[in-house]
Amino acid sequence: MQKDLMLDNVNLLAIDHWILEEEMTLEQVGEVVPTIFYVINPDLTIRYINSLGYQWLNLESEKSMHKSISIINYYHPDTLHVAKSQMHQFYNLQNAFDIQYDLQKVWYEQDSEYKLSLITTKFSRNLDGLLSTVTPLEELPHLKNRIGGAVMSKS
């Protein structure tokens, strides 16, 4: 996996492959993905979220995930209906090869503001859920450095 952890190879297809074919756990993959990464259920509640996601949602620990947290609670109210509809539609298609890209304003609890973010989503048959990443547009130029840091820490 380390050799695959390069800017143009870190995508949801690779992540789904790592979980399915290389028999890695969500936790193992989630900790090397250099952005917010989560899996959502058909009802759009979060099943798994990585440590960057915990910071994003301002959660203290995995204990706080025992309650159902809906991802749509973090979308801007003006576009919530569109995003919710798109996610349900994308889940219902259950096409494991398509990736949906969207720009949405999402709430960042730690900064107390909505930030325009790139959201990528893919259906995973193996997990029967949607794999998603969220990256604020302001952080995209720094993503390559974070990927390089993840490669170095796993070597």
UniProtKB/TrEMBL annotation:
Source organism superkingdom: Bacteria
Listed InterPro entries: PAS, PAS-like_dom_sf
Annotated ranges, domain PAS: 22-94
Endpoints of the signal sequence: none
Protein name according to UniProt: PAS domain-containing protein
Organism annotation: Fulvivirga marina
